[in-house]
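Re: the 353-residue chain
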Amino acid sequence: MAETTYTIIQADGLYPDDTVEQEILRPNLPVPCTINYLQLDLFPTGAPIPKPWSAVPEDLRHKVDGILTLKMRFTAEDLALFPRLKVIVRMGVGYDRLDRVALAKRGVTVCNVPDYGTSEIADHALGLALSLRRGILLHHDLQREPHVKPWMVVDTPLVTRLQGATFGVLGLGRIGTAAALRAKAFGWRVIFYDPYIPNGFDKTFNIERVKDIKELFRRSTTLSIHCSCTHETRDMIGWDLLSLMPKGSILVNTSRGEVLKLDAVERSLREGILSGAGLDVLPEEPIPEDRVHPLIRAYRKNEDWLTGRLALTCHTAFYCPEGFDEIRVKSMETMRDVLIDGGKSNVITSDMA
């Protein structure tokens, strides 16, 4: 009987070596097999746009059994380039960049890494909320040349007391829960909306559940978005919801840019419904320089009406050196478990949104 050979690629090109991956792949294999692991360079850190999947040499594409990717999109057309593909691991929580319909038709198993970066992203969400709500960004901007403002209190709707105010959480998954607990520790009254969470979670964490998304927006003076991008949530948050928020509210998004309409954010900021917004994610990343959204243009030009009111953090909420290492380890552990060991770690089934 011929020995099985597995070929696995990390597509983006994120790491200087493959020491970590080899340590995970080699020990205690269930059956004798050969494992070829290669790191490509389709979307390395700092690259403005990715290379196409067709840049992978054809002879290699026809051997690939497993793909790991952090930032690359993967369409039906891309799938056709990899006739042997069995498993694809999205190195992160969201998997909206993968064409799951096409992958399911071909019988390719899709996995994610749901348990990395929880603390970092929750910390980041609270950091954005606090930096806006306590006027930290505002004073930082006002004390810079060429127009340094007086050393004094600024009367602004950005700054209010946290204790007793309402912090809304949209999506109470791992990260949303971690954010809710942090907000609660600061003294916020926490409410959440998530139709997929079983009854009783509100009792477990001593926070309030609302059954209507409109109620969440009506009551939240600070709102943090923590939902994945699905067919249901894409473009879900527009003017119809943001306009319900109390005047002077804060909005934070560290989940997926595609769930929030930038036109609505701009209008809400201009009309004072939002006093500030902290966005780690945008609908299109990287920002397409041939069609920069007017809100982003205003931010880049330091227009006066946005002073201290908008923070952009380049989809980095997940990042710290330890977190980046964690993604690397957990992704390869998932790949090995599903492709080689026959397990089911982090498999995204067809019934999942």
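Residues 120 and 318 are 5 Å apart (CA to CA).
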